[in-house]
Each structure stands twice: as C-alpha cells, then as structure tokens.
C-alpha cells in the first residue's frame, strides 16, 4: 500500500511486503526509541490522541512515539471531556480536529466508528482499537515481537505454531493478529477459548482458505502442547451484554508456571497484549511467570513504541529524513541501554 497520507484502519490493508516495510522502519528507529539519539524530524507536527475507551499502553506509546520523532501530542481521553458528550457527530468532530492536527489516533467502543470518523477527516487517522473489531497497531507490534522471539530460536514467522487463548470472540487484538498471520506460510493455530467465546467464523474461514491449520480447543491444557507461542488474552468484560454474563467466564483459563512446565515445550514464548487481569478471580496469566525468561510481555510493550514510530514516519512521509534531524542525547539514560 501507499502509506503516505493514508489512514491505517485495518490490517486487511497490508500485504506481506507492507508488513516487512513497517518492520524495517521500526528496526531503523530503534536508536531513537532507546534514547541513544534524538530526532526532531516531526518538529511542528501535531498528533491528536482521541481515546474514548480506557487505555494505558496504546495511548501513551502512540504519544511517546510521536514525541520521539519530535512532534507534539494533544490528548482527549473521555467522551465526557469531548463535544461528543454534547451530541456532536463523529463527522463534525473529525472535520474540526483535522483542522488542528497532522494526524489523529483514535480509539472508540464501536466497531467501524474509526473508519466513519476517518471518512470525514482531512488528515490520516490511525485506528487505536474500534470496539471488538480491530486493533492494527497491536497486531503489528505482536507480530514484530514474534519475529524477534522466533529469530532467537532460529525460526521465522513462516511455519509458526501458535495458541491463542481466552476471549477470542470479543478480543480485537486477536482478530487483527489472525488476519496478519494469514499472510505467512503454513501457520498452525490452536484456538483455545471457553465454549461461547470462539473467534468469529469469517476469520477461521479466511485462514483455512489460505491453507493454514486451524484447530479449536475448549480445554486450555489440551491446546498449549506443541506450539512455539502462547498468546493469552483477557476476558473483555466491558463488551459483554451484562456483567453477570462476563462473570461466567472469569478465571476459567489461568496459565501459571506449573501448567506451563507440565504441558508446554521448553522455551515456549508467552505473550499477552496486556493489561492482564491480576484480580484474584481472573489471573489469566499468573504473576508466578514473571521470572520465566520466555515471558515476552514487556518486550511486546517496548516494541509498541518502535512500531508506532514507524507508522507515523511512513504515513507522514519522513522515513528518509529521520537521521538528517538527529542529535546526541545529553541526559541520563543508563537504564535504557538495556536492549528492548
Ligand atoms: C488490548 C485492547 O485494548 O484491545 N489492550 C491493548 O491495547 N494493549 C487488549 C485488552 O484490553 O485486553
């Protein structure tokens, strides 16, 4: 695809080459993300971060990514703090905000809302998550992390064996991830969910249509054998018709060190888009895994900055200019010198 000036709304926009391009730019901006150098390439540019659903890492890492390229960020974080609470349409908000910004990142609780907003926007819009539908930047950073983790084991994304675990019905991160995985060769997917929270059929149909192996499981221990990666997800309780309905699924699947040791191949990588639900009744990813070197969850979050910097650089057409605006870092950065 042509990235320059275009919206990023769905991973369906990307070819395998496009993903490689994003990853190459992400690799190249690593010194800036690690504070080894500063670049001011987006000096004067403004990004509007519109987050109408709870968010920590997506919101802050999109903001940091833009700042690390030298740009400024304006944030609105709640519907009640915006004119949407006064009945303003997405169309009007988009027309107004795009007059104030060079790019807009938006998260919204309804599927398709970010695309509707983008239609009225005069600047590129990046989807930060639209309801249960898609979360393109999360899927890109997950795939980038998978590529990195597999490389340390002498493997590639082709022939990847992966288990997706938890709420696969409402989890937008897994929806986008499955579509991206479909671009690679001979993927083997274990889809491990409680009955009632299976992934939408159109996603499995598409994967099978491309020749990938897709196997559903309802018991966690059955689905975590013989895979390279476990990708655990939270029950998306905010998307259920009622809290009572969500509570039926709480704590059904809990991965901990004992289950991992008993059922997984050595060095199986553990991922999660985060946040993990650490409340006593949930705990889908136990904190006793924190010392497990295969737990890649914080490598994922660090990689989010690189991938989001890459998206901004591509969409705003500054990829070849980043190094021309570079300066050395002068402040204390010792802790950052650990590899991401
Ligand atoms: C995910 C999301 O918002 O879809 N979080 C994130 O952006 N890292 C997953 C989740 O909330 O469970």
Quick summary of this structure?
This protein is an alpha/beta fold and 340 residues long. It has helices at residues 16-28, 30-33, 57-68, 90-97, 113-120, 136-152, 172-181, 201-209, 220-223, 243-247, 257-263, 297-315, and strands at residues 37-39, 46-51, 72-76, 103-108, 125-130, 161-165, 188-192, 213-217, 229-232, 269-271, 326-328. The radius of gyration is 20 Å and the shape is globular.
CATH topology of the largest domain: Rossmann fold
The helicity comes to: 25-40%
Distance between the termini: 28 Å
Side-by-side strand order of the widest sheet: 8-7-6-9-10
Helix tally equals 12
Q: Which architecture of the largest domain per CATH?
A: 3-Layer(aba) Sandwich
Walk me through this protein's architecture.
The model has no long low-confidence stretch (mean pLDDT 95). The protein is built from 12 helices and 11 strands. Helix 1 (16-28) crosses helix 12, helix 3 crosses helix 12 (297-315) and helix 6 packs across helix 7. The radius of gyration is 20 Å and the shape is globular. It has 340 residues and is α/β, with parallel strands linked by helices. The chain has helices spanning 16-28, 30-33, 57-68, 90-97, 113-120, 136-152, 172-181, 201-209, 220-223, 243-247, 257-263, 297-315, and strands at residues 37-39, 46-51, 72-76, 103-108, 125-130, 161-165, 188-192, 213-217, 229-232, 269-271, 326-328. Strand 2 (46-51), helix 3 and strand 3 (72-76) form a beta-alpha-beta unit. The protein has 2 domains: 11-134 and 303-328, 3-Layer(aba) Sandwich (Rossmann fold); 136-298, Aspartate/ornithine carbamoyltransferase (Rossmann fold, 3-Layer(aba) Sandwich), CATH 3.40.50.1370. The strands form 3 sheets. It has a 5-stranded parallel sheet with strand order 8-7-6-9-10. Strands 3-2-4-5 form a 4-stranded parallel sheet, with helices on both faces. Helices cover 34% and strands 15% of the residues. The structure holds N-carbamoyl-L-aspartate. The site of N-carbamoyl-L-aspartate has 11 residues, from helix 3 and helix 7.
């Amino acid at each position: 695809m042509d990235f320059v000036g275009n919206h990023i709304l769905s991973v369906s926009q990307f070819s395998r080459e496009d993903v490689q391009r994003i990853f190459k730019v992400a690799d190249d901006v690593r010194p800036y993300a690690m504070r080894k150098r500063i670049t001011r390439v987006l000096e004067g540019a403004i990004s509007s971060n519109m987050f109408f659903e709870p968010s920590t890492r997506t919101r802050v890492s999109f903001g940091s990514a833009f700042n690390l390229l030298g740009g400024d960020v304006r944030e609105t974080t709640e519907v009640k703090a915006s004119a949407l609470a006064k009945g303003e349409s997405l169309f009007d908000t988009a027309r107004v905000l795009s007059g104030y910004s060079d790019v807009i990142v938006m998260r919204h609780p309804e599927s398709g809302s970010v695309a509707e907003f983008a239609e009225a926007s005069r600047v590129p819009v990046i989807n930060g998550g639209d309801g249960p539908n898609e979360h393109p930047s999360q899927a890109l950073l997950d795939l980038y992390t998978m590529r990195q983790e597999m490389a340390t084991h002498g493997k590639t994304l082709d022939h990847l064996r992966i288990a997706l675990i938890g709420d696969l019905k409402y989890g937008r991160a897994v929806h986008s991830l499955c579509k991206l995985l479909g671009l690679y060769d001979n993927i083997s997917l274990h889809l491990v969910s409680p009955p009632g929270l299976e992934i939408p059929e159109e996603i499995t149909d598409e994967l099978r249509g491309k020749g990938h192996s897709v196997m559903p499981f309802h018991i966690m221990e059955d689905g975590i054998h013989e895979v390279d990666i476990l990708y655990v997800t939270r029950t998306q309780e905010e998307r259920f018709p009622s809290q009572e309905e969500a509570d039926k699924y709480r704590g059904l699947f809990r991965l901990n060190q004992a289950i991992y040791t008993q059922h997984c191949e050595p060095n199986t990588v553990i991922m999660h888009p985060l946040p993990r639900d650490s409340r006593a009744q949930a705990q889908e990813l136990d904190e006793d895994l924190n010392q497990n070197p295969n737990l890649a969850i914080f490598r994922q979050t660090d990689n989010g900055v690189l991938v989001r910097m890459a998206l901004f650089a591509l969409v705003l057409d500054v990829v070849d200019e980043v190094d021309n605006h570079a300066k050395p870092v002068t402040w204390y950065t010792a802790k950052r010198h650990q590899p991401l």
